[in-house]
Amino acid sequence: MYISLLNLKHILMKKINYVLISYLLIVFSCQKTAENESLTYDCKLEQQYKELTNSIIRSIKIDNDSLIGLYSKISVISSEDGEFLYGINFGLNRIEKFNLTNETYIKTIYTNTPVELRQLPLSEAKFINQDSIILFGSGGRMVIMNEAEKVVDKWDFSKLISPNSDLSGVDPLNNSESFFFYKNKIYVRSFPPLNWDKDVEFYEKPFMLEFDPVNLKVTKLLGMFPELMTADPNNYFYNDYKFSWTKFKNNPGELIISYRRAHCLQILDLSSSNSTFVSAKSKFLNDFELIPREYNSQAGRNILVSQGIYHNLIFDSYRKLYYRIVSHSQPLRNSTTNRINSAAIKPFSIIVLDDKLNYLGESTISNYQNYSYLNPAVSSEGIVFPVYDNDENIVSFDIIKINYEE
Fold it and tell me: Which InterPro entries match (predicted)?
């Protein structure tokens, strides 16, 4: 059959275009798959257990019949005027401020005074100084207020985010950190349009967004869960999606992440998104009970009560240490009363790491019944825990020192 040069050129171009498009589709497909794959969990457990002792170095009791206590979170801020402790009760919309140095109550700050906060259920607070208290509430609304109860700045992420296959929105997490500021950007925990309890694909999506507060836009998504969360397609660990994080003080461009059931800490580079892992295993945690990937609130609550976990990761700027809080396993029910035990009051210990994340040891808190492991804070003297006191008019705190140099 006769084919003109023009027709031949046309046929060749179609074949070249077909091959090129096919190649690009294959490359794009491979890149897309790689983005959504879980992170290799390269965890080498290297340290040997070392027991560290601890002691209560100061007990504080403040008697004032106007105090509420029962704090959702406490924080300590140092200034030239002394050290100040803030205790926030999310349910009652109030912050109680104390002078930790002379053990006195100063004032109550009401978080629902500003109009922007009146109908906002709060789940997270970060205390920077008296001019900056950052409050994060359901629906992704973040407000910065000062002690005079005036709003300094605010963002409603639900109106600033364009949902896609990797991002449905942001929301604060109870007893976990969900945001931080770095180089004029806000980094916030993000969630894909999937169920954390049912969909294994949830753990193949980015878990954090970078937000530009000046131009009011999301600049990138980043962060990958380790493959630990996707290794079993049919079962998962309750609250796998929750974790604690803190910026690496030796390199603020890196984030240290503590997952609930990961013996190693993840170090995430915020610019490159590369990750490494470093051992920080507790003597008291080994195996974790998995449950089927389905919504089962009762099974989940039972896990929270009975199963030990790695909880908050806290940096101690005074001693240049990291504390990894570890709750221990316990029976589901009290052997005497047969009532279900508390998930907030459990045996716990504290792993101590130096500023390079070298393991220094682990200290068990013997009188754990007096505290909740959920919300300690760091002061110049040690680790501050609110104390459960039967006297409603007294707010109590213990400051615990861990002897990591012994």
Answer: DUF4221
